[in-house]
Amino acid sequence: MIVVAAVYFVLAVGASVAFARGADRNLDGPRLRALWAENRTAEARCTAVRTEEAQDAEGGFVTHHHPTLEFRTDDGRTVSFEERNARVSPAEGDRVTVHYSAADPEGATTRAPSFAVRHARALIVGTGSAFALVTATVLALVF
What we know:
The protein is of the alpha+beta class. The chain has 4 helices and 4 strands. 43% of the residues lie in helices and 26% in strands. A 4-stranded antiparallel sheet has the order 3-2-1-4, with no helix packed on it. Helix 1 (2-26) runs antiparallel to helix 4. The longest helix has 25 residues, at 2-26. The protein is elongated.
């Protein structure tokens, strides 16, 4: 029954790779890693904050704040963008650091580099593979 354990292991590792890709995209990992790799930062000023109410899965209401930030790029261009997934909630007039790309400064973010986003795929695949290995070993020993 080693074959059953081996097939299970291959399928489980494949599932963890697929899950890791999806989770990485949901975390906006590829875009954020590209921004952080360029290592371009600027000080931005919050020019407005748009408030949006939404209903969560349990029916409760959640308030989201979307700050509009304005900053100057290295080449002197003034850029304004709305941060949709802000981890910080600046008030109008506050200053925050943004990470941006020279090719697409409007895609800037206030999110600072984080270990979890940088290594999400590897962490998920590693954990899933370790679990698959332990489970496949138990299957092989039991059958």
